[in-house]
Amino acid sequence: MSILSENQIVDIKICGKILHDALLEVANSCHAGVSTAKIDQIAENAIIKAGARPSFKNYLVAGVGEYPSALCISINDEIVHGLPDKNRRLEDGDIVSLDLGAEYHGIYTDSAVTVPVGKVSAELSKLIDTTKTALELGIREATAGNHIGDIGVAVETKAKADGFEVIRDYVGHGIGTKPHMSPQIPNFGTAGRGEEIVEGMALAIEPMIVTGSPKTLVDSNGWTVKTADGSMAAHFEHTIVTIDGKPVVVT
User: Fold this and answer.
1) What is the domain extent for residue 147?
2) Rounded to whole angstroms, how far apart are CA atoms 185 and 87?
3) Taking the CA atoms of the chain, what radius of gyration do you get in angstroms?
């Protein structure tokens, strides 16, 4: 678990602002014809220029290896951990999930957004809106005295109300002095259950919502997580810190 000191909270706010600005630049670069490798380079350059480090690059995952890029870029039926590729270009009608992390003075932040490329279907537009709103509702529950389960209930309730499903195999997480820490933050759960949320706790809350089955598979590249049934996926994420009892979004 990561309970941050006052100085660390200052640093996570700086790191979060750097990541927010970088991810906005990345999202604005997502046009038809642009290669995913080019978008990754934009992400890396933006973070380094601002004085931070892209924390995903060379991040070691046991049994898989070191992640080779700054950005995870997942398209359509890809949920998370999509690899940038100089030979893959965005197309009109795609939805693109952009997941990016940064490190500043030993403190980490993590954030994700899903954007449409050109004109997308009404269903995909609804999926994006639902996932963004589910994140906002989940964050609202991250108050001191609440529990991790309260976040998951809020996310899943919104997803199901709109006719979608939440991914169960991949979850949010604590963050702060490391990029991934306890507790795990599922996008489902039971109200009042799980770790209690306390003052100074830093969390990365990240709904992953799909139009079809929540079952997943990992692509042959060993990294990219996809829906097992080929349905579409969206992903939003913010790093928050509980300050004065309330959740403060730093990204």
Assistant:
1) 6-249
2) 35
3) 17
